[in-house]
Design a protein that fits this description.
This protein is of the alpha/beta class and 172 residues long. Helices cover 28% and strands 26% of the residues. Strands 3-2-1-4-5-7-6 form a 7-stranded mixed beta sheet, with helices on both faces. The longest helix has 15 residues.
Length: 172
């Protein structure tokens, strides 16, 4: 409540409407697809939230020059589908999180659905991008309603971390 929130790779704004309903003072919803942002605005209206009180920007999240914000949500689509692109995906996560440090003041909620990158590689890329001024506050993976067959470890692809900037009393 009371925070400015940015939702990158927002698609139709699921995290955005949750933040708005949770009392965020302003939510900026960013996605490259203008049609998805129109859906997000409709979801705001359906939930009784005035989309005019929030921001919706159709732009590439990797280049977005956003304002300083209390919480930045980073939930890109899968960044690799084949072995040849795995290295590029790691670099993309690193670059993205380096970019996020330009405007995140308190918290970063980051997620990945990139099956080809195991948790350790993804976390390493996030850590390298953010630098040493952040602490892990929470980590999670597949919920109980997303079982992973023992013979299919690639099914263990959902990753989430909530990170707080060290030395910031609002991070908790």
């Amino acid at each position: 409540a009371g925070r400015q929130v940015v939702n990158l790779f927002a698609y139709n704004g699921g995290f955005s409407i949750s933040a708005a309903l949770g009392g965020a003072k302003r939510v900026i919803t960013v996605d490259i697809a203008a049609a998805a942002l129109e859906d997000a605005k409709e979801i705001f209206r359906i939930n009784g939230v005035d989309p005019g009180a929030h921001g919706f920007e159709a732009v590439d999240a990797f280049a977005w020059p956003g304002p300083k914000s209390d919480l930045v949500i980073v939930d890109p689509p899968s960044l690799t589908k084949g072995k040849a692109a795995d290295g590029a995906a790691r670099l993309a996560y690193k670059s993205l999180h380096r970019h996020v440090t330009d405007y995140s003041t308190d918290l970063v909620a980051t997620a990945s659905c990139t099956a080809r990158l195991p948790w350790e590689r993804w976390e390493e890329s996030v850590r390298e991008g953010l630098g040493g001024t952040w602490a892990s506050l929470h980590r999670s993976a597949e919920p109980v309603d997303h079982p992973v067959a023992m013979g299919h470890p690639e099914g263990r692809y959902l990753k989430f971390m909530l990170l707080g900037r060290l030395g910031n009393s609002r991070s908790a």
